[in-house]
Specification:
alpha+beta; Alpha-Beta Plaits; three-stranded mixed β-sheet; about 30% helix
């Protein structure tokens, strides 16, 4: 069976709450990196405790976690979802490098709510500073020289 990470947690007890909730809704779950996280030291280095569910249940699991209040908008912009785009001279930063759309996060009149979310995220998580978001294909990326 294929498993996918549905959420990551800093603390194992948070992961167990979400695990119990998903299992009460009939979704099989699996917790990874729990022992490492309990030992404390490397928890941040490995990205915390991962809660996995079968890949074919991923969308259903995300919906259930949203309904239960386990997923907030910040969780939808996890660090690993930021794509690193190699910066090359002459690249057009006003276009999405994936779909070519100009409807991206640094445009003058983007989706106000999304900009607000990105603003909050950039305060909470430094990695979101200087990252861009495409409002057409929903990708988040940053440029690397
Ligand atoms: Zn795009």
């Amino acid at each position: 069976m294929d498993w996918s990470v549905v959420l990551t947690f800093t603390y194992p007890q948070e992961a167990y709450m979400a695990k119990n909730y998903l299992e009460s809704e009939g979704i099989e779950t699996f917790i990874q990196d729990e022992l490492t996280a309990q030992s404390g030291m490397y928890a941040n280095a490995i990205g915390g405790v991962k809660l996995l569910i079968p890949t074919d249940k991923l969308e259903q699991g995300i919906e259930i976690l949203k309904e239960g209040g386990y997923i907030c908008p910040a969780d939808l912009y996890r660090e690993e979802e930021i794509k690193i785009v190699k910066w090359e001279k002459g690249m057009d930063k006003t276009c999405c490098p994936f779909c070519g759309s100009t409807n991206i996060g640094k445009k003058k009149d983007p989706d106000k709510i999304m900009v607000y979310i990105l603003l909050i995220l950039s305060v909470l998580f430094p990695i979101f500073r200087s990252s861009y978001k495409c409002f057409d294909c929903q990708k988040v990326w940053k440029y690397k020289k």
